[in-house]
Design goal:
The protein is of the alpha/beta class and 156 residues long. It has 5 helices and 5 strands; from the N terminus they run αββααβαββα. The protein is globular, with a radius of gyration of 15 Å.
């Protein structure tokens, strides 16, 4: 658990970078062995790009760093349960293990809304849920509270 928490804390730092940009605070870290291969955070609003999720950015950077699309020796640590797009990218890149913090009851596809790992795809990553869940959830709640307060202030 200590190892998982160490890498999830790095993902939380990435999520905080997203929050500083007024992006939904999601951070991702890809690890091979004990080496951090890549990191990413949400940049959808900044880049005006629906594909700029933390996981997709981290996967893209890992492929570039390792020189191939197969990440079968890698683990992904992410602060929020992956959505359908990111779950598909995880499966297609052959990431062996996914560790996430907060569940996503609206779009999560590794156990919440759907479980892509239960389908007969050619690859099924191991999934670990709830690592530093309270911290990951608190950051998301803080962000959405900030947005609600900002919206109220602009209506005055």
């Amino acid at each position: 658990m200590e190892r998982e928490e160490r890498f999830m804390r790095l993902a939380l730092q990435e999520a905080e970078q997203a929050m500083a940009l007024e992006e939904v605070p999601v951070g991702a870290v890809i690890v091979r062995g004990d080496e951090v291969v890549s990191m990413g955070h949400n940049l959808r609003e900044t880049g005006k790009n629906a594909l700029a999720h933390a996981e997709i950015i981290a996967i893209n950077r890992a492929c570039q760093a390792l020189g191939g699309w197969r990440l079968h020796q890698c683990e992904l640590y992410v602060t929020l349960e992956p959505c359908p797009m990111c779950s598909g990218a995880i499966i297609n890149s052959r990431i062996q293990r996914v560790v996430y913090g907060a569940a996503d009851d609206k779009a999560g596809c590794m156990g919440s809304v759907a479980d892509f790992c239960a389908y007969p795809f050619n690859h099924k990553p191991q999934v670990v849920r709830g690592v530093l869940e309270e911290e990951c959830q608190a950051l998301l709640q803080q962000f959405f509270q900030y947005l609600r307060e900002k919206r109220k202030a602009s209506q005055r």
